Amino acid sequence: MFRKLLIANRGEIACRIIRTARRLGIGTVAVYSEADAGALHVRMADEAVAIGPAPSSDSYLALERVVEAAKRAGADAVHPGFGFLAENAAFARALAEAGIVFVGPGPAAIAAMGDKLASKKLAERAGVNIIPGHAHAIADVDEAARVAAGLGYPVMIKASAGGGGKGMRAARDEAELRDGFDATRREARSAFGDDRILIERFIAEPRHIEIQVLADSYGNAIHLNERECSIQRRHQKVIEEAPSPLVDAELRRVMGAQAVALARAVDYVSAGTVEFVVGPDRQFYFLEMNTRLQVEHPVTEMTAGLDLVEQMIRIAAGERLAITQDQVPLQGWAIEARVYAEDPSRGFLPSVGRLTRFIPPAEGAGVRVDAGVAEGDEITRFYDPMIAKLIVHDASREAAIARMRRALDRFVVHGVRTNIAFLAAVLAHPRFADGRLSTGFIAEVFGAGYDAAEAPAAVADVLAAVAAFADRRTAERAAAIGGLVPARECRLAIAIGAQRIDAAVSAIEAGYRVALDSRLLTVASGSWRPGLDLFEGRVDGREVAVQIRRGPRGTWQLVHGGAEVEVLVRGARAAELAARMPAKQAADLSKLLLSPMPGLMVSLAVADGDQVKAGEPLCVIDAMKMENVLRAERDGTVAEIKVRPGDSVAVDQVLMTFE
């Protein structure tokens, strides 16, 4: 076994690898950029080595610096995690030349599977189903248009070296293809150092299903069943589960056999994932092979009862696989939800800032949290916006969904916008419950974004009742401090968005009876007191958890069941007087283009004085490794551009004005 392991990564995966290495008695070395000097993975590791400035190209992607750090620390092995250098054959070769073991497959397998053009040809020779497409790299956008016309729209524009949702765009017609080709090429060059592009036919209503494989250096190879990864936005996975609600035993056997055949064809050693796209007719096609640990590996660990990081380390250390294919279990159901620093109401644009509060749900009893941050840490624009992964396990899919919804209600994050309420809304949707999934699920169900302030009626009643409870208990505490006896009953006016509710609150044992218009509810909690971020109690006898924060002037911020709302609670007389106040006029922002996110201005498509039509591109902002095109909302004339390419921009910064 290894003596010292360097983790060539950051965030939650670095922390997760450190935990397994520590359990195996292996010393750990973290690497960090200037932006990550105080990061959690640095604090957790036994040692830490600085490798450069904040931009990943100058630190985590700087191959020579990472290899030198491993030498300097005396590490005898390096685990790359996922992303960054995890699928870089040159990195694996450089480590081997330095006498350091790469915890992953050999350089030849990485190179073969990392090139999507080469991997498709190899997969076809191995007997794996492949998607119809062009067999060579596309030279330019004109050739792309000719190829796409021959294949038939829609098509997928893909970076040959891509992965992790980067460098991928669907095009429904030639206009979208021409619009997306150059952006895809730039993303590919920036993220992978390889701007070759391929074109494939887009499979309608696709599901994204992948097979986890394990192989040792003695010729043993097995698969660990499948994962369903169809819930995606911008081609990046958001919710994953194992097994898939689509796959039966026979389809699992056939897909698994093809995945293992591909692994054998490239002499694969370590953990890897063969990804397939599956159509409504249950026909499946090879998408790519990821020669690394996947972000969603915990759902496989939960259902197969294995630690995949441990397996990778043991295989790299020369050990044989401990189990055979017929010994691989499929235990219950697991679901993973990725908690991102992003704003679903603004098209899932990334959010940055300091985590002023970070309280994940308690682990144990089927709940696991893989986090790379702690309270007080900062989410910056330099790296992927994932904060943590929440994983649950239960006996059935229905039970796992229920457990995940309860856990999300208890996941408290303040300081940045998150997708927690959105994740809860996905899990609550009837189509998700029925297992009717596709990679277009989010776009089809939620459109361009999700407004968590629009609470369903049943959830709104729970939030109103809890807000009334909190307001009443806070008033009682204030009365007690002042030596007063609070009234046993009061009348309130509650506002949730545009909804107005008259409420009567009366004290009962351990809680209150709350009348919301004509609806009567009981609310009880023996644990909540003013100042706590989480209300845990019962509403009408049903156990609920509601995140709750007191705001100014009678407001409460509440998160529960897919809703994230501000509830205004006033006494009846105060509400009557407030209704007579003139409405505040919103500022006119129609002639301003504001940055919807912090990032780097990549390019400008217009100049001062240009006339633009609605939908035309104005500029491109790079944020958290993704290019975002800002477009004109209406026809107009550019008055003044306030920024230049290369400028760093802040959220809501004025980028340009219009006449």
Span between N and C termini? 68 Å
Give the C-alpha Rg. Answer: 27 Å
Task: Enumerate how many helices there are, as a single number.
Answer: 17
User: What name does CATH use for the topology of the domain at 457-578?
Assistant: Glycoprotein, Type 4 Pilin
How many beta-strand elements? 38
Q: Indicate the mean pLDDT.
A: 93
Q: Largest sheet, order of strands side by side?
A: 13-12-9-10-11-14-21-19
Which CATH architecture of the domain at 457-578 would you pick? 2-Layer Sandwich
Description:
- The chain is of the alpha+beta class.
- Among the domains are: 4-103, 3-Layer(aba) Sandwich (Rossmann fold), CATH 3.40.50; 132-201, ATP-grasp fold, A domain (Dna Ligase, domain 1, 2-Layer Sandwich); 457-578, Glycoprotein, Type 4 Pilin, CATH 3.30.700; 592-658, OB fold (Dihydrolipoamide Acetyltransferase, E2P) (Beta Barrel), CATH 2.40.50.
- 28% of the residues lie in helices and 33% in strands.
- The chain has 17 helices and 38 strands.
- The protein has an eight-stranded antiparallel beta sheet with strand order 13-12-9-10-11-14-21-19, with helices on both faces.
- Strand 9 and strand 10 form a beta hairpin.
- Helix 7 packs across helix 8 (174-192) and helix 12 (397-409) packs antiparallel against helix 13.
- The chain is globular.
- The model has no long low-confidence stretch (mean pLDDT 93).
